[in-house]
Amino acid sequence: MANTVSFIYLYLVFNVIISLPPPSNAISSCNGPCRSENDCSGQLICINGKCNDDPEVGTHICTGGSPAPPSNGDCKPYGTLRCKGKSYPKYSCSPPVTSSTKASLTLNDFSEGGEGGAPSECDESYHAKSERVVALSTGWYAGGSRCGKMVRIIAGNGRSVLAKVVDECDSRNGCDDEHGGLPPCKNNIVDGSDAVWEALGLNKDLGIVDVTWSMA
Known about the structure:
It contains three helices and ten strands, in the order αββββββαβββαβ. By secondary structure, it is of the alpha+beta class.
């Protein structure tokens, strides 16, 4: 009788165990794999299959530092970076994108060995000077959500050009090999290739000019 009771007890325990749902996947932290927003912990979001800071919220969990305020039109720096004896403001946000967003167009060499440093973030590739490509400030880059998309840039002379987003103009980090030794970008930068400047008929020696841009 005792053996029968023990058998029944073990049978019931075994059935309870196998009827339990399998354990769920652990919630991913920074750079962890993800398929949806629910796969990432806290205020992280899923970007290109990895959990990362949410550019809309202005979190800094993955990059360190204090959280920045959300981009609400009053975009302020959240700290500074000391570089070559100077202090540069750090931003996670950029002014709101409109149908005619004011920006500063700068000149960048996206080719291998150029001043841009590492390959472009969007495709891990270098781009020739003849390609119409741009990098956007961190807030506008939006964690890579604008990678591969086309933007329209309009210069003060009335000329316009379409260019592809291939990289981030990092507004939070800089002064290292990855960034070609350059300081953090301002939060309103459209960093264009030679071809972009030439299509707009601009003097590249100026290095920076006022433009407007929008999503194409």
